[in-house]
Amino acid sequence: MPGQLLFSSSSKQGSSCFVTNRSVMVDKCVGKSVPRKEGWEKVTGAALYVDDIVKPDMLHGATIRSTISRGKIDRITFEGDIPWDEFVIVTADDIPGENSTKMFVGEQPVLAKERVNHPEEPIVLIAHADPYLVRKARTQVKISYIEETPCLSIEDSLNKAPVVWGEDNLFKTIRINKGDVDAAQSEAEIIVEGEYFTGASEQLYIENNGMIGEYDAEEGVTVTGSMQCPYYVHPALCAVFNLPKNKVRVIQSDTGGGFGGKEDYPTIIAAHACLLAMKAGKPVKLIYDREEDMVATTKRHPSRTIIRSGHKKDGTLVFMDVDFALDGGAYMTLSPVVLSRGSIHAAGPYRCPNVKILGRAVATNYPPHGAYRGFGNPQSFFALERHMEKAAKQCGLTADEFRRRNFFREGDLTATQQVVQDRVDMRELLDQALEAADYHNKRERFKKENEGNPVKKGMGIAAFFHGSGFTGGGEQKMASIAGVEGTKDGKVRVLAASTEIGQGAKTIFSQIVADALKLPYDMIEVARPDTDDVPNSGPTVASRTCMVVGKLIQTASLALKQSLVQEGGLDEDYTPEQFAQACKDYVARNGKLRRYSQYEQPANIVWSDETYVGDAYGAYGWAIYVAEVSFDTRTYEARVNDFVALQEVGKVIHPIMAEGQVQGGVAQGIGYALYENIVWKNGRMMNGQMTNYIMPTAADLPVIRVLFAEQPYASGPQGAKGVGELPIDGPAPAIINAIEDATGVSVNQIPATPEILMKEMEAAGVC
Ligand code: MOS
Asked: What sections of 150-255 are H helices per DSSP?
């Protein structure tokens, strides 16, 4: 590991501890924890979230949803003491274009027309000027149904009991084959089998979903709201309203978190707000309260994974056979791409000559499951890293030695036969993480202390990796464009549809541009994502904003500089003042000064969507996480006492924000592992409140110690890769492995709530 460790724990954070001898750029701004670009507006309350925005004559809307999981709509009646003639009412019959929101891959109806396929499916929209009357009125729209038998589990769906989508309930099947798993059976001396389950979980961004729709017969539709992907909303509205591109405008208002939860569903809300606005002839605001947001919008796909692995006596992997299934819910939406990422990573960072992965996303009658940070990987790494624990035991090796023997080495092939290019040595990362966690000493000590103690402590490891950017040919198909503008005020303005959702996009873009142009950070501004103003830099997803869009912005910055030098007479060796003056002069003379850059696939990336062979991602982030957990045999509660998160994500652009990304991801991962349980009844979420959907608070979290190793990536801006999703992939298996270390009991289902742990411990006779 030639990179240096950056210890950015709170005691020594910031740029002062930054040590690297591999950096070739002049690091003026990148690598420093500069103030957040939008921080001032947020702390002073000047930032406007969608619910803060008021339009003249604005109405307030509400959505009436199905209460059953599957059936035909029989009758809709408007009852109670409500002045219904004052209301604007929209049903599927009011949709001028297609009753479908096309996602990146799948689709979903805007409003149910004759039948419903999941609880909380939108059927009727209402709006009125009085928001309190709207609240009362929504309870008085009565819908009766002719109910049909729903499909409510992965197993039932695979068994076609009943068929609820297509001919066989399969939204997508993926097969990855490397070597020959069947032929390798006889070579294996030890066979390990296991089955692993993960539950749904809710993104729980701070700001609920919301949109304001506006309609004008001349201008078309405009929507403003909370979202990750303006250019997912835009084509969908064109289709729903049957309008050309230039008659649809999508504007992102300041957005309080996304985590994948504002990737696809905002398109539905945007269509609803605009349908109401069109019928009303007035702007309509549609804001979800917390409960509606939790029960109706997407959650992480539940999963079931069966792994069979073969080993030599020394633990070496001979084959891996993985059957990975995701519950997609009632409509396809993003399930094929979530499945794709999860399947590609399912064999982990391990060298194995024979790998077979079968991935299936199945239809059920739950609300569609969707994107949530990690996008399929937290599911497949939970299964894999629990399985590796089991395999280590069966092979008679410790958790760390077993992994050390099996990690990728430089030049190895991944499951999709990609040559591992990253010069990252997982064995070295493992040693460093174990040392930081004091793993060996603590394990020894706990073994003694656990004797006769009702509270048992243990240590757990997870090793994992996460591809940055879209999978396979995704980036090439997207062909994103981003740009920069020299303004009439002599500033530089970033032009991208990539949204600030709290993750720091505005800040890192500004840092990258400041360094590319050798300008102070304060001279850089970032345009509000508005489809009338910024190009399609792609969705803000897939840990791609820094690595892919950041690189485009860096390239566009150099083009801008070149224009000013060649056409504007700017001296190559300019001062910031000269640069500003050159911008002002150029704009005064020629009008707008905008330069763009479009994504081009690096020539060495080759991928086939047909065979799933090739370079699945341009680069990967790599990580070893270590959890120290205590389990109370009297209350069945598990608690994380200490957590070390070591990762290699290329150049760290902003140390404090990167550390925050990791701490946030680990916190969400702890919730995923131990606390966040969705109570389903007939496909309906029954605990859609933060009082009964238990997420960890600060009191439940340990100090999360974050370490970075740096290995600059040639095609990333100043060597950066993605950091957004990686941190949620590893905590759950590390924690459950630690529970096994503490108690000897193998738990293969999350969330491992006290109820689940009680069942498992009692079955094993532990307590
Ligand atoms: Mo995402 S889970 O916003 O790629």
From this structure: 154-158, 181-184, 230-241
Residues of the chain with CATH 3.30.365.10: 51-148+203-296, 303-471+610-764, 474-598
The DSSP call for residue 69 is: S
Distance 142 CA to ligand 1 centre (A): 36
- Looking from the CA of residue 540, the nearest atom of ligand 1 is 3
pLDDT above 60 (res 392)? yes
Please, what CATH class does the domain formed by 303-471+610-764 belong to?
Answer: alpha beta
Residue 92 has pLDDT above 90, yes or no: yes
Contact 244, 324 (CB under 8 A): no
CATH architecture of 51-148+203-296: 2-Layer Sandwich (3.30)
Average pLDDT, the chain: 95
Specify whether the CB–CB gap between 513 and 522 falls below 8 A.
no
Q: 293-345, pLDDT tens digit by residue?
A: 999 999 999 999 999 999 999 999 999 999 999 999 999 999 999 999 999 99
In this structure, are residues 145 and 68 in contact, taking their beta carbons and an 8 Å threshold? yes
Task: With cut-offs at 50, 70 and 90, classify the pLDDT of residue 693.
Answer: very high
Q: What is the dihedral of CA 14, 442, 674, 633, to 10 degrees?
A: -150
Question: Which residues is 483 bridged to in the sheet?
Answer: 495, 596
Exposed, middle or buried: residue 579 (CB in 10 Å: 0-12, 13-18, 19+)? buried
* CA-373 nearest atom, ligand 1: 2
- The first and second tokens of residue 408, run together, are 């990728």
Q: How far is the CA of 312 from the centre of ligand 1 (A)?
A: 38
Residue ID of nearest Cα to ligand 1 atom 3: 260
Residues having CB within 6 Å of any atom of ligand 1: 228, 260, 263, 371-373, 375, 541-542
Specify the ligand 1 atom closest to the Cα of 543: 4
Pocket mutation for ligand 1, best pick of 333, 725, 728, 729 (most atoms within 8 Å of C-beta):
725
Q: What's the gap in Å between 488 CA and the centre of ligand 1? A: 36
pLDDT of residue 767: 79
CA of residue 542 to ligand 1 center, whole Å? 5
Kindly give the residue spans of alpha helices, DSSP state H, lying in 261-415: 265-280, 290-296, 335-344, 377-394, 399-406
102 vs 377: CA distance, rounded Å: 24
CATH topology of domain 474-598: Aldehyde Oxidoreductase; domain 4 (3.30.365)
Taking the centre of ligand 1 as the mean of its atom positions, its distance from the CA of residue 608, in whole angstroms, is 23
442-464 average pLDDT score: 98
Q: Cα of 374 to ligand 1 centre, how many Å? A: 7
